[in-house]
Design goal:
The protein is of the alpha+beta class. It has a single domain, classed as 2,3-Dihydroxybiphenyl 1,2-Dioxygenase, domain 1, CATH 3.10.180.10. A hairpin with a 5-residue loop joins strand 3 and strand 4. The chain has four helices and twelve strands.
């Protein structure tokens, strides 16, 4: 398997709230991206270096009910309450060359594989049916793209680069074991502490930690 960071997501109560907060934090205005019809969410995106991208995601207020629980805990009242206070690091996504092998190797349930299509590009993504984030977001979702250039190549480069995905957990040995089984230990920094996810970025405003 070839695994690398695909993108990382900051959740927001609304995209307007998120864009404003990211402009203050990073010194850039994250451009509008697209809609996810299957989940009734929408996003803003920009390049983040090494064929990865930054995603600001929120529930689309103009979209119909998706008929299922939205991804990334966006329907969870606790998540919604946190995002009303401020945008927060929500999850990270790993690009894999063999999603079926990832599922087979995983010692924990990563969710079902859901197929998505936009234009002539398609992708497969792990999405738990109940919308939860595996290990509370400490584990990534996994994505496998159809052949073609990575989507980040068509996004704007505004000078924001991902330096590190940082994870803290009270049980580092357990989480490290899962990471080793999934072949993603090289993609994130794990330290001991309360469960938390953060993204270390370089930006026009300097070094920024989004948590």
């Amino acid at each position: 398997m070839l695994n690398k960071i695909d993108h990382f997501a900051v959740g927001a109560d609304t995209l307007a709230q998120g864009v404003s907060a990211m402009k203050d934090a990073l010194g850039v205005e994250v451009p509008r991206g697209s809609k996810h019809d299957a989940m009734s969410t929408h996003n803003c995106v920009m390049q983040a270096g090494n064929e990865s991208f930054f995603e600001l995601i929120a529930i689309d207020p103009d979209a119909p009910d998706p008929g299922r629980v939205r991804w990334f805990t966006l329907d969870d009242p606790a998540t919604q309450a946190r995002l009303k206070e401020r945008p927060q690091a929500l999850c990270w996504v790993v690009n894999t060359s063999d999603l079926d092998a990832v599922i087979a190797a995983s010692p924990v349930d990563l969710g079902e594989i859901v197929n998505f299509q936009r234009g002539d590009r398609s992708w497969r993504l792990t999405v738990p049916k109940d919308g939860h984030l595996p290990e509370g977001g400490l584990l990534p979702a996994f994505i496998e793209w159809s052949p073609g250039p990575h989507p980040s190549t068509g996004q704007q480069d505004l000078g924001v680069k991902l330096d590190a995905v940082r994870i803290s957990t009270p049980d580092t040995s357990r989480l490290q074991g899962i990471f080793d089984a999934l072949d993603i230990s090289h993609l994130a920094e794990i330290s001991e502490g309360p469960s938390a996810l953060s993204f270390a970025l370089r930006s026009p405003n300097g070094e920024v930690i989004l948590d």
